[in-house]
Amino acid sequence: MKPQWIVFDVGGVLLDWERSSAALAKKLGVEHSLLLETMFSYAPKMNIGLMSPEDGWKQILTDLGKSYDPLEAIRSWRSTDFWIQDSLKLASELHAAGYKLAIFTNSWLGLEDETDKKLLPKEIDLFTHIVDSSKEGLRKPDPAFYALLESRLADEGAALFLIDDTDKNMPVAAEKRWQTHLFDTNDSLSSANQIRSILLS
Description:
The chain is an alpha/beta fold and 201 residues long. The chain has two domains: 5-16 and 83-199, Rossmann fold (3-Layer(aba) Sandwich), CATH 3.40.50.1000; 17-77. 46% of the residues lie in helices and 12% in strands. Strands 3-2-1-4-5 form a five-stranded parallel sheet, with helices on both faces. Strand 4, helix 8 and strand 5 form a beta-alpha-beta unit.
């Protein structure tokens, strides 16, 4: 059965956060591992909206002893330089083929902030829905977050095809009978081609 909706994760599928965070660490003059350790101590709260991205990054930068604009840190993290071109091309092809696209992400990147939307890749406009954990107060793999997405899309089961790079996010999707593909960030072209063979052949 061909799905109706292709549901993309962001980090690791559309955005190469490993490269973008490494570039930000270099810009800040700190070890990459230290930046990630500090960021991940606040990420759980930012992921579900208990702390805004700006407030979270203010604290991260304070902990790192760096005087840097927190909004600029967020923009640097999601700079267009680090969006995965193989994935963006795939999204364009799927859209052209008539599939409906949605984003389903554990995030705090402000993908729906109108002031910064012009800084995102143009392909973001192809996505009909952006379901962001930081806006909804839920995150993967909480089943309630998956149910929320189904409600937003007014569709369920095999009508949804999830592309995600994290193993632990797949079992709930499988239980709900979604179709899934585990994306390999390190071999994005191969992953994109596998999806093409399923959906565009």
